[in-house]
Design brief:
Helix content: 25-40%
Shape: globular
Order of helices and strands: EHEHEHEEHEEHEEHEHH
Length: about 230
Amino acid sequence: MIIGSGLLAHAFSREFLHCADVCIYAAGVSNSSCTNTHEFERERQRLAQAVQQALYVNTFVYFGTCSVSDPGARNTPYVQHKLAMEQLVRTHPRCLILRLPQVVGKTPNPHTLLNFLYARISRSESFELWGSAKRSIIDVEDVAAIAEQLIAINSVQNTVAYIANVVNYRMVDIVHEMERVVGKRAVYDVVERGSEYFIDTSVMLPVLEKAGVKFGNDYLEKVIDRYYK
């Protein structure tokens, strides 16, 4: 069973759309800059209802955010909301919380990092580049492949697991890869903001080989080529 219709819901539909034992909750606020309390409350009500209606499933999967580990983001309304939703999900007797970084795939959502960069560079619009920021970038198909392996492991139930690229990329390197694909130079001002933060991928690492996921040196290039070239 899948709740939601966006990027994550589509990626998980192949394996879990008609699965009665697993509920994939892939709905809710998708803009990390959101401060709208009405949007947060709407997700809270929908999630609370979903948890109660899915008490019978073997695993209830919810997607959190790796930004809970980011000193510059953990106190934002969005991250605080996501943490509150994780607490709500923990009322399910058999839940799995998967915290994700920057997920890449085909989506019309303009608020994703790579969609933002693609739009700005394509239109030669200026933007601020956070000079000290690093980001973990992962293909949504790899998220689904890794999650499928974790869901099958009973011992990870009622835990929090991070699914993320083991490499954090400098924002300037991400921009350079997007410039290559778009064929235009980006227009930006470097500001001294952002940081690199640790993402604990220890739960995920043992299943990478079985999931068929490799974070090689050309991973960022391949992901951007796949969805933006």
